[in-house]
Amino acid sequence: MGNLNDYIEWRGDLRFSDVGLCEVDALILSIISYMRFDGVVPGVDEDSSVTLLEAVKRLLGKNKGKKVTIGKLFPPEFIALTVAAAKSRRFSGIRLMCYENEISEVEEKQFSALTFKITRDKYFVAFRGTDDTLTGWKESFNMSFMLPIPAQREAAEYFSKVAKKYNGSFYLGGHSKGGNLAVYAAAEAEDSAKDRIITIYNNDGPGFDREYVNGEKFRSVQDKILTVVPQSSVVGMLLEHEEEYVIVKSNAGGLLQHDGSTWEVTGGSFVHLDTVTEDSKLIDRRLKEWLDGMPPSGREKFVDTVFETLTATNAKTLTELTSDKLKLVKAWSSLDQTTKNFLLKFAAILIKHNALSVKKKKSK
Hints:
The chain contains 16 helices and 11 strands. By secondary structure, the chain is of the alpha/beta class. The strands form 2 sheets. A 9-stranded mixed beta sheet has the order 1-2-3-4-5-6-7-8-11, sandwiched between helices. The mean pLDDT is 86.
């Protein structure tokens, strides 16, 4: 089976006006939103835009021949995919606008979004998932006890601005936390904006607490949500999902399936499966049990303790932190025993799931 790059090669000569947006396109645009387009794509208060081809050329020129990177946790395939898309007829001419990228350690906020104009009257609003910053990861963990997190509020405000600024119809989407932000932005939108939403793509992003998914706002857009998860999903199974979701086949094993570039493609869609794996269901239950073992106040204290310890190393990103083993050892030694026990239990759940998933993958 093919992958995202194969899809660009297969369908790259067909403009969106020839063949409309599909689930594979939505993931590609969501991945492109991880690129650091600061100073390249105009902001939300500007009236100009650039084509994807222009944006990629500027991005590469801005780095002056240096290797473009978006962090240690992100595969180089994301950058290669963006370059390949920019060279294709299908993606090269779409216009990028309304770029925002905000990091606030004080607010514990990591938010980024941009809007693609894919045809004369259709737009794709893409929300970035968790980036390489410790601030971004702390905010994502805050989702276990806080609603809304700052990025969710920003997402709702961002879509409100874009919907008022442009006529036409909208797709919303994102990968990982970005998928969650897309759903929240749609659910919180005014009715006039909701009516113009075609589909909301949540690519392996977490859900919400039970109260929110049972609420009127979520249910008002529930039928427009397409949640896509790989067969051994972890992130996409977190928290609660009331919407229907589709399961896709990945060519990777374990936690690496969260990387959308590993999802298999045939024609104009992903390779769909009937159900997630048993180990995915098992980790879903165990993580929920792990979270249920702590009240919201306990989760907040746990997250604060872990990230206060990590930031005490003066690292700002996971790349900085993982590049210095002494910092990691120092951070671990500084944790109290209760926090260490919770972390060890969490790690044991993930390691066991990963081992089972990889073992099954190799046996096929």
